[in-house]
Design a protein that fits this description.
The structure holds 2 protein chains of 2 kinds. Chain A contains 6 helices and 13 strands. By secondary structure, chain A is α/β, with parallel strands linked by helices. In chain B, helix 4 links the parallel strand 14 and strand 15. The chains are: A alpha/beta, B alpha/beta. Chains A and B meet through helix 3, helix 4, strand 7, strand 8 and strand 9 of A and helix 3, strand 7, strand 9, strand 10 and strand 13 of B.
Chain lengths: 249, 325
Amino acid sequence: MKIAVCLKRVPDTVAKITIGADRKSIDETGLKFVPNPYDEFAVEEALALKEKAGAGETVVYALGTDAAQETLRTALAMGIDRAVLLQSPGSPDGLEVAKAIAAELQDGGHDLILFGKLAVDDYNQQVGPMVAELLGRACVTSVAHLKIADGAIEAEREIEGGIEVVTCRLPAVLTCDKGLNNPRLPSLKGIMAAKKKPFETKPVALGAGSIEVLGLEYPPERQAGRIVGEGPDAVPELIRLLRTEARVL
Amino acid sequence: MAPRILAVIEARDGAVRKISHELLAAARELAGPSGAVDALVFGAALPSGADALPAFGADRVLSAAHPDFARYNPDGFSATVASLGAGRTAILFAATATGKDLAPRVAARLGLGLASDVTGLALVDGAVIATRPVYAGRAIQKVRLRASPALVSVRPNTFQPRARDDARTGGVEPVSVPAFEARVRVTTVKAPEKAALDVTEASIVVSGGRGLKDPANFKLLEELADALGNTAVGASRAVVDAGWRDHAAQVGQTGKTVSPGLYIAVGISGAIQHLAGMRTAKTIVAINRDKDAPIFKIADYGIVGDLFEVLPRLTEEIRKVRSEK
């Protein structure tokens, strides 16, 4: 089984975000970056599927600056066979990113192309299904359970108040949700081995796209709250405030 | 030229979903009084509630009927939406599980960018400007969509549905479904063991964290939710990771982002991850034993105390209030 995994480098989910001097992007100085958490489910799934098949190749791709090398190396340390960095500063237009990835994967002969469900930086949640559409492949997004047998896929995805069961055939593009698996941690041996694995860097040029960032701001500060009181005796006052002041009851 | 907006309506089990009324409110706001709003519905037949869409802001209802459209059909739906894009100012989707799957497919078919999960929309000099939370709500991005139609998915609970106005009427017109290759099929939709309201769509969310001490104690939150009505029970990442609650209920950076009218955080300390998922709630209440818990810094109202004493009292008082109505 030949599997491609697309990975993104994102700011650590617990890091404080500082808006940059251009007022359009974040200030990356001193900011800790991690592999996008949902992409780790994709990496784990690729490794597990290859192990189950007993043969195949897993390749990890990232579109980003040279700093994304570290993100790719993490995937190699988890067990992915080789890495390709599509060197680009990126784009706010997910379709331009998708076009570059689709062009790279076009003739790869992958049985599966895996993404995380969404990247926790831009929250676009769109590159995976766009790549599928550009390649004319079957696509299931936000997959939380997956069965593959004899080239047939049965996937489950969460929808509001239910679970959708979706079927398709390989080759396919899937985006991975939490619940699919428990990503392994890189072992020390894996970290050492990662240093010797094939690592390719290819510059890519993205189109201008149709999304222009005008600005980036902090969300409105919430007014400092107040402690209504202590213990159950504060409940009637809370209810009064919710009814007469906040008017939500 | 007056704006022309296409709103992609969601239906399930043959009925239009309520979120579609929010979408029409957003579409109407963008279209203005002189613009036109078309509501596109999918189904094996016309879903119930489709004929009432004009009363919620649509000028026309476009019905895409196809034997394969009883359930969501990603390839067929995206082909149909894409075929209706010409001459439009914008196409609006709801940023639901379905809308988030459908919108990018349409964008790729049309070769246009997509602004996902937006919380604000405006038309400036003919171009759609959208605001959208990024970095899990730690920053708000403003973007201009430079091409037409502007493709946008709208975050649930952001736009207030318009009051039903039965004086507004509009016809239902069939639209032809282009030929499509169904690469994927939705075979079944499983209802959860207990029908639960989704945290992203409920008008009130009560969430529990590690302070509840035991998964069985979520019963206290469920009772409060029952008393409140139209309320979903959420959970912090810690208790989801511990296996106490399903991931579907997780509020926060690697879970759901919610914007309910009222959010009640119980036994949740308020890690950055969690705050990211609920800080856009209109009113936040926190109940926690630790008066220094970070949740109190963003809560509008806090009660410091033992949740096992406060919760039953709160449920009791809410029941009283609700029975007065």
